Amino acid sequence: MGFFDNLKEAMQRGNEAANNYIERENANKAAAAQAQKAQTQPAPKKNNLPEGVFMVLLNRLEPVNLGPDAEGKTVFVSIDGAILANDVVNPGSDDGENRKKILKIVGEYVTNDIKANAGSMSDVKFVLKHRTDLGDRVIGLLKENGFEAAYKLPLMIHPKVKE
Questions:
Q1: Please, which contacts does 4-9 make with residues 24 or more away whose CB atoms are closer than 8 Å?
Q2: Side-chain half-sphere of 100: how many Cα atoms within 13 Å?
Q3: HEC profile of 55-96
Q4: What confidence tens digit (pLDDT) does each residue in 72-119 have?
Q5: Alpha-carbon span 10 to 4, nearest angstrom
Q6: SS3 state of residue 121
Q7: What is the pLDDT of residue 45?
Q8: Residue 83: count of CB within 10 angstroms of its CB
Q9: For 8-40, how does the pLDDT look when each residue is reduced to its tens digit (9 = 90+)?
Q10: What's the angle, vertex CA 40, arms to CA 37 and CA 42, rounded to 5?
């Protein structure tokens, strides 16, 4: 073996050592980044509402079909808003079940009310006044059903037209 053969073997060993070193460094960096990511992940968001109070989003209600308008397009009315509620009758009951109850109560009442006033829903002034009255009646209805309730976001009525 000559000088160049020894040099060639030494360069191959050096190249392998360098590659091993780079792999170890990349693995260390990945482990450090993962550990830092685990430390910086925010804690689960704590509910800022008082104990026993939960929020119900009314935009989960199905839009109310008012039927075709004069041009034959189907008119829908959707409801938005958010209600803060507390189950007075069964304190400590499941919030998910209470949300479903409230959505069912509000959905049935609002659907019947809007369908009864379908002819007036094209008048903006009527809708603005009616949503306030309807909101007050919804809160009263929830109180009758054992919930202490108030609006976080006011009740909004949005007409939508589909062809």
A1: none
A2: 4
A3: EEEHHHCCCEEEEECCCCCEEEEEEEEEEEEEECCCCCCCHH
A4: 777 777 888 888 888 777 776 777 788 888 888 888 888 888 777 766
A5: 10
A6: coil
A7: 55
A8: 24
A9: 887 888 888 888 889 999 998 888 888 877 666
A10: 120
